[in-house]
Records
---
Amino acid sequence: MSDKFIPHYFRDIDDTLNDREPYQQQKWTRTAIKAKENVELRQKFPPFVVPAAFYKIVHVNKYTSMEELHLLVNHVQQCTQFTIDTESERSDGQLALIQIQTIPSQLPSLLILIELQHLPFDNPPTYIKIKEFFSLVFRSGNQLYSWGDMDKELEPIQDSHLFNWPTTASLIDIQPYFSDWYEWALAHCESCRPNHHRQHGGVNYDNVTTQNYSSFKCVCHEQSPYRPGEKWSLQKALIYAAHMFIDKSCTVNNWAAGLTSNNSTLSTGRRKKMINYAIYDCFSTTYFIRPVLEYWTFNKLKNTNI
């Protein structure tokens, strides 16, 4: 790929400046490598896109009306499954945003962005309604899916009284299960073995186990880039399993600065990009829930809707 397509500040990863401390140079280099890789992946793979009709975005902050909160509470009362993610403020590392996607029986789904630094602490009725929302999401019997340890990610606000902790809902981290599923899917690829349900050479492909995966690899999906036991990044999981791209350039950001026009100093364009990043982190995790836990083949994954 030509360097002209890469922002100039990412072109020379080995660049060194005299005024950088060694640890600063290492951090700069890591950031530059990730940014350059993100640009290259964007050009190589089509984006992962969820039709706008499938979802609605709901911002929860001090400007959210009581009517909006009533509608939100009514919606989550009907849901038992959710996808959850978090983002931290780049300046101090404090938890700043919680993203929750509802998984209702009928679309549209709601993408709820809770801006922790902009909640209505001085408006008791509204704040109580937000706590009611959290109590419904984290109630017993619900399943909350994530890509990463949500118990650890939510630890900074477990004493904030927004919700009871420890939660009685089930927190299900998809990430640790992905590696085994991917190896299984490689061994059960219909595109490479259209007759994989039959026996070939005395081997029944339906009975392939983790011990003999290596003998039955598909050629339309790449082998895992990770060592055994390593956890997959969500971006790589989507690229390797579905050949689709999600932009991770907004990961480190000013998430505490506000995401709506009436509570933010950020530009409209930047807020839009951050919101898109936040909701697609949830979408991508939701996309993998059933395929990974129910052991879908690559073809079934390809032909499904989120």
---
Amino acid sequence: MNGNIATDFIMWFLFLAFFAYIMRELEIWRIIRDIERYISLYKSIRDKALVVTLNTFKEVAAKTKSRLDLKMLEERVMGLVESVLIEPVSMDPFGIVGKLKHIVLTGDRTATQEVKRLIPEASETDVENLKNLIAASRSLNIIYKSVDHVYRLGRKFKSIWLLYQLQALLPFVTEAMRALESSLEAFTNGFPVGDGAGPLLAARFIKKFGGNELKIEEIAEETIMAEVPFKNRKVLVIKAKGPSGVTGRLDDAFEEIVVKRKIPEKMVIKVD
């Protein structure tokens, strides 16, 4: 009798263990299928961005009547999309803001040189639009590869907790992917990014109160300044030169005015 009870207990234990194992495997399979649907979506968005970028390069080349090697174009664009900027260590005792700015500006100059190397006759507007498309494609590519990397790790080691965490984050990641996807149209056509309230207000202020003899100076790279008389005051209006997603170097412009030219400021008004 005791032997039968022990046997039944062992059988029940084995059955429950097998049932728990099967349920865990089914849950992992369900999560994997769900994550794979997201990854397929991300891949299609990334590929769409690459196609839009390549087509825009071709359109600019046709507009400027430039000869373009399509194979080299695809290789160079993929090289730019696959490139990454390595940020400085946050524990640097000398601070990271200046170094981070140097890295960002170096990356921007490199992108400009690469675009001009492919299409030397491209205008500044076209160069900026192409750079923005490359940046959007790079961001989409990084997100896609990061998600795919975590997914492959979780699937390889059958880590249900890693897959759970990834699955929980994917709806939010999808929002970021959709936002970047929607930016492709803006960058392709040179539309302003964001509401553009600050640059629009500055431009309207300059136009309304500047007069015909107004002098506009490029005080920093991609940044202009206008000295506008307003109610017996001298107003220095600084804005990005534009167009498209060019945000200018407003910090360099402000430093040029206050530190180098030593123009005293009584009030600073920022419009964002």
---
Amino acid sequence: MPIEPATRSLIQRAAKVLADGGVVAFPTETVYGLGADATNADAVLRVYEMKGRPRFNPLIAHVADLETAGAHGCFNAPARKLAEAFWPGPLTIVLKRRAESRICDLVSAGLETIALRVPANEIARGLLRAAGCPVAAPSANRAGHVSATAASHVAADLGAGPDFILDGGDTVLGLESTVIDLSGPEPLLLRPGAIPREEIENILAAKLGDATTPNEPTSPLSPGQLASHYAPRARVRLEATCVEPGEALLAFGGNPLPTQ
């Protein structure tokens, strides 16, 4: 699949691909997303299959603004506070799902909750506005692989899978959104991410609880909760005495090792 620059006309074309049930890779401020119309179960299924992602692992529904998010999730006072403070931005909020939401059950993996986000990246927001639908979008990489932060990473990992790849350059943050669960009696941090927990706690004036990591195949409440999430394919040497060419050093202490 060719990589296309994110011009206005090509964003419109990508939106048409989504409307026709296609899968589009696009940039956000965090990482690249692999998007499909969240109301189209067949399109969402293609995303799961393209990634090799288990269907019990829910997706995040991306929307253009808070008003649209309110049509799908039941916003309580804490959720509205966080949305007003951090949206658009790298925050995902898990809420009770509205009965009238048109988002298909596959997006939420059969749960009664829905994960919602309004991204800050202007290309992503332009795509969402042009598409006129919520877009279910996990990171644009094979399940378990490192998230794509450039269009070239998407093409290298997913090959000809996506119907369209919008190139918006390197992502600004390179780290996934923070995921907060506000569907229950206390706020929970489901996935650490780009927004530190302290900033969220300051807005809520409350401490965040920590969700336990579910054991497979128990359904997680959020992306990033499975025991294995990132699995970089790299050789690791322990107790190294030197840094060889092509290696990077992870060290604790004050004496860096010599390089060869």
